[in-house]
Specification:
Number of helices: 11
CATH architecture of the largest domain: Alpha-Beta Complex
Radius of gyration: 20 Å
Distance between the termini: 43 Å
Shape: globular
Structural class: alpha/beta
Helix content: 40-55%
Number of domains: 2
CATH superfamily of the largest domain: Spore Coat Polysaccharide Biosynthesis Protein SpsA, Chain A
Number of strands: 11
Largest sheet: 9 strands, mixed
Length: about 325
């Protein structure tokens, strides 16, 4: 247990894998506005792009850890969080950067509500538009919308996705917030950590928030806690065909989350609904494939292959 008299006000943990330049930007965004004594921990998950060397040379005050091989996001995050000493712990993606002045609203939120356990940022794309930041736990309706592709056209569906216009007034109680920029009290981590390392990339934030909620902690989005997120820079398929998210990882992680937290029967229902949605999506993609230029048709082929792998991951 950290000594309260010497405890840092904040520990920022940034897992990274082959995102050197974005990681440098992330660290700079933290260092420019952090209170004195802030602890910055970067966990390099076996990068081959010189990330560790660049960080050590530029940020001597940061703790830079290196995994000899790629252990994955959750394992890297756990390594950093297990060493963190701060009163508040901030897990930040390497492709995310704090907007100037955004840390203080996060501190204020914790100060104003002693039952607030986890605070999520209002994520925005580099162009300033709002990004998916959190919402309600997955329902069967939303799972169908996700796998069928309806969610891509509908944008934010009720009761699941939550988009907060960056800087808008008021905070937002939610069931979960994304791990791209997730702040938590040390007591929360001590109570329910570590992250489940069986998730491939997406489900650990859902799982952690579910555990926090069960132990009586509140979860909220803080609109003035603004983070610019280069969505998808830290993960992608082997052929790069999936766009900003890897559907294979996303779908399988959500299904695992449901099985772990709601049981095998609920997971079976979710699997059936997701499979129906996936078949509809793949059918529509097959019909659309012959149209467009050769370049467009090739992109469609690669994208369909990515979703076919995602469907197979549900079996």
């Amino acid at each position: 247990m950290p000594n309260p008299s010497t405890q840092p006000p904040l520990s920022v943990v940034i897992p990274t894998h082959n995102t050197r330049e974005l990681t440098m930007e992330a660290v700079a965004s933290v260092a420019s506005q952090s209170p004195q004594g802030t602890e910055i921990i970067i966990v390099d998950d076996g990068s081959s792009d010189g990330t560790s060397k660049a960080l050590t040379e530029r940020w001597s005050e940061a703790m830079v850890l290196r995994n000899e091989g790629s252990l994955g996001f959750s394992a890297s995050a756990n390594r950093g969080l297990s060493l963190a000493q701060g009163r508040i712990l901030l897990l930040l993606n390497s492709d995310a950067a704090l907007f100037p002045g955004s840390l203080q609203p996060m501190f204020d939120a914790f100060e104003n509500d002693d039952r607030l356990g986890i605070a999520g940022a209002a994520l925005q794309y580099p162009d300033g538009s709002a990004q998916w930041s959190g919402g309600a736990f997955p329902s069967l309706l939303w799972l169908f919308a996700l796998t069928s592709g309806i969610a891509d056209f509908a944008g934010a569906l009720p009761f699941y996705r939550r988009f907060k216009k960056p800087g808008s007034p008021g905070d937002g109680p939610v069931d979960w917030v994304t791990g791209a920029a997730m702040a938590m009290r040390r007591q929360v981590w001590d109570d329910i950590g570590p992250l489940d390392e069986h998730y491939r990339f997406y489900g650990q934030d859902l799982d952690l928030c579910r555990k926090a909620s069960r132990t009586g902690w509140k979860i909220a989005l803080i609109p003035q806690f603004i983070v610019t997120h280069h969505h998808g820079a830290t993960v992608g398929s082997s052929d790069g065909a999936t766009g900003p998210a890897n559907p294979e990882y996303l779908w399988s992680d959500i299904l695992r989350y449901i099985e772990v937290n709601e049981g095998p029967k609920a997971a079976g229902r979710a699997q059936a609904v997701m499979s129906i949605g996936a078949r509809l999506r793949l059918g529509a993609m097959t019909l659309a494939r012959p149209f467009g230029s050769q370049e467009i048709r090739e992109a469609k082929r690669l994208r369909r292959a990515a979703f076919l792998r995602a469907k197979k991951s549900l079996q």
